[in-house]
Design goal:
Order of helices and strands: HHHHHHHHHEHHEHHHH
CATH superfamily of the largest domain: Peroxidase, domain 2
CATH class of the largest domain: Mainly Alpha
Number of helices: 15
Helix content: 40-55%
Strand order of the largest sheet: 1-2
Number of strands: 2
CATH architecture of the largest domain: Orthogonal Bundle
Oligomer: single chain
Distance between the termini: 31 Å
CATH topology of the largest domain: Peroxidase, domain 2
Largest sheet: 2 strands, antiparallel
Structural class: mainly alpha
Length: 360
């Protein structure tokens, strides 16, 4: 979503790159068994068993290479170093926590969690920072610079920028009162970026429920993940241009809430387009479950938010999260771990940048 804490994407899910290869002979033999060509039963069993094991290896390969203990020997104090910088930034400006969380989302949902969102444009390189969902809204890059500098002093050339994004996202949520989780590490940084992919991969705030569910499924995430991760909108703000149509044209909107939001968002495009409003009217800098109670009261700021409670398949889950903060926290943490597994570069792929803004 091209709002402050965007979540979703049309990114097609691809299995992780691994050294495991499915041999054509095994695949051919297994398919022959499936279509019942004349073959010895024992041969069919061996072929199908081998193919099944190989597919399992492929599916779990990237997951096995990422681990919370990845830097336990090479940079044992990485979590401490990151936390101190995030604490400093969020204490100065609580809204920065939402921005850092959003950076991780916008990184992972555009060609995977590879730090590409951090790369600056140059005369010969076009990054993702000026893509429509990021332009004049993505921020926190200076905080990531500070985090990287602090970690580089202790462990030069060891910790990737992609991993730093993952850790800062978790720390930001915790500092604002949200749940914690074990951040899996071991990602490497991309040497490329794609403005086109950033423009196409993040649905707009006008996305309907069907589009949102499809986008998450394409990224390997479930409908539960969609609803849980949308709870990130309990913090942060959105531009008037992203919710104008909702507050002026839609009927599933609490009347008093609409009146409040229209005071700072003119009906016509113009100078007021960038006027900000909190995504959660009641506790905009506290990571909690009030986002869902807002939806029950038809106080979702974005069209895509209110779509989660609009008579569709996600209504029951919104009710669950509104009534059970612990269930929301647990599901959110699990979804964040799962999202962090989207297409990571591992092993010898990519690099570990010295400066998060440019390739080595």
């Amino acid at each position: 979503m091209d709002n402050l804490v965007g979540l979703s994407s049309s990114l097609l899910y691809k299995p992780p790159m691994c050294t495991t290869v499915i041999h054509a002979k095994i695949l051919h033999t297994s398919l022959a068994c499936i279509v019942t060509l004349p073959m010895a039963p024992s041969s069919c069993f061996v072929a199908l068993f081998t193919l099944s094991c190989t597919l399992l290896l492929l599916m779990g390969c990237s997951d096995a290479q990422l681990s919370p203990d990845f830097y336990s020997k090479s940079c044992p104090d990485v979590f401490t170093g990151v936390k101190s910088q995030v604490e400093s930034a969020v204490s100065k400006e609580p809204g920065m926590g939402a921005s850092l969380l959003r950076l991780f989302f916008h990184d992972c949902f555009v060609n995977g969690c590879d730090g590409s969102v951090l790369l600056d444009d140059t005369p010969t390189f076009t990054g993702e920072k000026n893509a429509a969902p990021n332009r004049n809204s993505a921020r926190g890059f200076e905080v990531i610079d500070d985090v990287k500098s602090a970690v580089e002093k202790e462990c030069p050339g060891v910790v990737s920028c992609a991993d730093l994004l993952a850790i800062t996202a978790r720390d930001s949520v915790v500092l604002l009162g949200g749940p914690s989780w074990n951040v899996k590490l071991g990602r490497r940084d991309a040497r490329t970026a794609s403005q086109a992919a950033a423009n196409s991969s993040l649905p707009s705030p006008t996305s309907n429920l069907t589009d949102l569910i499809s986008s998450f499924e394409n990224a390997g995430l479930s409908t539960t993940d969609l609803v849980a991760l949308s709870g990130s909108h309990s913090i942060g703000q959105a531009n008037c241009a992203n919710f104008r149509a909702r507050i002026y044209n839609e009927t599933d909107l609490d009347r008093s809430f609409g009146e409040i939001r229209r005071k700072n968002c003119p009906s016509s495009a113009g100078p007021g387009d960038n006027n900000l409003a909190p995504l959660d009217l009641h506790s905009p800098v506290a990571f909690d479950n009030t986002y869902y109670t807002n939806l029950l009261q038809f106080k979702g700021l974005l069209h895509s938010d209110q779509q989660l409670f609009s008579g569709g398949s996600t209504d029951s889950l919104v009710r669950t999260y509104a009534s059970s903060p612990s269930t929301f926290s647990s599901d959110f943490a699990a979804a964040m771990i799962k999202m962090g597994d989207i297409l990571p570069l591992t092993g010898s792929d990519g690099e570990v940048r010295k400066n998060c803004r440019k390739i080595n």
